[in-house]
Amino acid sequence: MTTRTPNFMIIGAMKAGTTTLHEQLARQEGVFMSTPKEPNFFSDDDQWEKGLEWYQSLFADAGDALFIGESSTHYTKLPTHPHTVARLKSTIPPPIKFIYVTRDPVERLISHYIHEWTTGKITEPVEVAVEKYPELIAYSEYEKQVQPFREAFGEDAVKVVRFEDMKRDPDVFFEEIKSFLNAPETWQWKHDLPAQNVSSVRLKKTPLLEFVQKSPTLKFLRRRLLSEKFRERLKSPYRMNERPDLGDAREHLEKLFQS
Q: How far apart are CA 76 and CA 149, in angstroms?
């Protein structure tokens, strides 16, 4: 088995387009990206306990790829996962580079809330949730999340880019990534690849809904007996049809993230 490990990582932020960037990189010449996209090996205790040999097995098929990467957003989730950087520092040989994708911090927070709402972890309205679940704010405090990587690996090892730039002009955005990784000019953004992992199309997960969706028989009957319009109506209680409005809390959060 190969003993190769990544020479670059996408380390977050959660809900900032990391899945799209991961898939774009996976389609470039000389690149091998891990499956699963987010091993979370250095952050999550249960993953870390699987051992380095398990982690290395994720890259056993990298062959002669010059660029080997993975994309774990848990790596920038302080204080939830406090051991990430220390574990990385003790395990991965230099040089290694880190790409941190940021997003308007309030919009990231809202997308994070939608994600947790769909999984059923959060049921409260967003203005209540920001008070009850401090990670919604913490994961948008980008300087606090990325500074440990700079201190451990050096300023030049970390590249901070913006989700908004990816959306506005992906070609220019990708040139930044290429330059940072010293990638060949042949790399090009794949415009035929749609955006990945879009939270607005998710349905709230419940045991009943998952059973209905996964049952081949029920899936067949739904499509044969129910019109598309009626099926969409049945999904309505499980879908967040409007993006949550923070109301008066937005101004407070904007000031907090600017401080």
A: 9
How far apart, in whole angstroms, are the C-alpha atoms of residue 124 and residue 116? 10
Q: Map tokens 């506005």 to a residue.
A: 168
Q: For the chain, what is the largest distance between any 2 Cα atoms, rounded to a whole number of angstroms?
A: 60
Amino acid at the residue 146: V
Burial bucket for residue 243 (CB in 10 Å: 0-12, 13-18, 19+) = middle
Q: Residues near 142 by Cβ (< 8 Å), separated by ≥ 6?
A: 13, 100, 102, 105, 160
Structure tokens at 75: 């790596």
Residues in the chain, overall count: 259
Task: Report the 10 Å Cβ neighbour count for 3.
Answer: 9
Q: What are 121's two structure tokens? A: 């972890």
Q: Sheet holding 97-102: strands in order across? A: 31-33, 67-71, 8-10, 97-102, 158-162
Q: What is the pLDDT of residues 94-124, one digit of tens each?
A: 899 999 999 999 999 999 999 999 988 999 9
Q: What is the pLDDT of residues 178-204, one digit of tens each?
A: 999 999 999 999 999 887 765 544 555
Distances (CA, A) of 200 to 22, 99, 243: 20, 25, 8
The tokens 């947790």 sit on which residue?
116
What is the distance between the alpha carbons of residues 17 and 56, in angstroms, rounded to a whole number? 25
* Buried-state track 139-162, b at ≥16 Cβ within 10 A, e below 16: bbbbeebbebbbeebeeebbbebb
Which SS3 state, helix, strand or coil, does residue 98 take? strand
